[in-house]
DNA sequence: CGCCGATCATACGTAGAAAGTATCGCGGTG
DNA sequence: CACCGCGATACTTTCTACGTATGATCGGCG
């Protein structure tokens, strides 16, 4: 019959040690004195040691009692902390959010979203990993990520278990070195691009973008085939600055300010695949819910689909018992 | 109705998280499934959060449940540690022993006693302070010490509340520089001493010794009055080495080996006040009891009074309930 | 598509434990 | 020596955790 020590025993022992008097301790606990005597006797029987010295001048803990009480206080602290932490976790105030994202998302939607999220949930640990959209989708279905920000709708095994919503549209622009003939121009055409050496994201890294581009250059894909590829926008811009070629990327590239490159629109404006946010449809994590709230407040540009989906994911965490207050 | 979370609830929640199945968890707890359901529901009501997701594929903790379980495990660890630590404290295996002692005790009885005590009770914190016998007695009655090792029976307010037992006898010897005429002699007489400049412990530091010496030199105390005084044996020996005079001290001084001094007996052998060990008569500390056990085993030289007193102080820490085993 | 098995929740009676009331025993005190 | 404060004990009452029986729900399978 091991482990019969209950939290009540600890609370009673602590009250007794505080008041050094059975009667007053019992009163402070809202019970009568005899039950307190009985419960203290029960703990002492459980522990196998006398925990209090009953003297005519008061009740004092023995050496064993002192050691016991130290641990008892810590145990009760842990128990109350357990309830508090459970509440915080349920409200999404603590926990972990693992996010995979493509580099270009770091330029526009993520700084605002993550900043506000960190502000409202400072105790949520963020695990941020830059990766390609297919990698992120795979990690999401595998349970290695909680949210993914990428381009294109996730494909592959388990993709149907993901919810994906658009969080940002943009279009294709070009970036060139200031020494390039395009420098200074507000816009260039696709025909002019076809004659240039191109720098773009790798097709296997961002298949949605590559497929999109291929459809634009349908007439002559030789420029695309010969393109230098890279896995992140900073590298594309850096290579363009070296005049390796003409960089192609999302309009949010303009947010990167450096003196050795020139950005110009490509006409006609060609809309890139939307930036999408994905998460598992069956994920009920409150941290995710809190994050989606922030996303909803910050990314209402693309479509009402966001609100619709996120409203659908309103937490069903009702508790059967009495609602406090 | 706050704080209704009981240790049982924690144990049940942890078992449920382990088995991910109400029926098996209940079986592992030795109860039926419905009570487990009821108890889990009770915790969830107490905490105000749903802690487990009941899915067709098993029972899994929610985010709140995970946070709760982490704390719950720690709380249970503290509770079981409380019992263990109480037992250890009751057996005197943990705790604190504050000891005051005179420097000369550090030469003979303390190294053996403290060494064996540390060996048998490695987790007891020792607080050792060198001080004069009267200081130690006062600190003892004030509750600032647990044991005192000194010479002479404690006097002063509260001394009657102390138990004092002899733990070592010795006699007076002299120590001189190797350049002193006494060097090389096996023994000298009190008459010879009377003509020398003396070095001895300060009368206000060790009144028992001083009174003893005064009775010996009753015929002529001028040498005593003119004596250089010091509060510890090492200084007496050091001063003797400088040929400041003839040092007087306990025979256990011989345990200090240094080449520049010579020890010689003083005839007739004059027995010094016994080394005494004192503690509060009402002190029921198991650490003290354990220490007294070691003392009893190591200091059976002086008298049977030690055994007698310590047997009287056999712990009355019986526990009313069932004795384990 | 409907039946069956598994699983958890609900209902209800029971037993045990904790709380309440009354009283006793023990020390210290005037 | 009688009194009083305090904790322990005796006994009753109340509450609650447990057990048995049963219901509701969801997948799986024929």
Automatic annotation (TrEMBL), chains A, B:
Keyword Lyase: no
Pfam families: HTH_1, LysR_substrate
GO molecular function, one term: DNA-binding transcription factor activity
One cellular component term from this protein's GO annotations in UniProt: protein-DNA complex
Key words, A-Z: DNA-binding, Transcription, Transcription regulation
Domain HTH lysR-type: start-end pairs: 5-62
The keyword Mitochondrion appears for this protein: no
Superkingdom classification of source: Bacteria
Family in the record: Belongs to the LysR transcriptional regulatory family.
PANTHER family named among the record's database cross-references: LYSR FAMILY TRANSCRIPTIONAL REGULATOR, TRANSCRIPTIONAL DUAL REGULATOR HCAR-RELATED
Name this polypeptide is given: DNA-binding transcriptional regulator, LysR family
Organism of this sequence: Lentzea albida
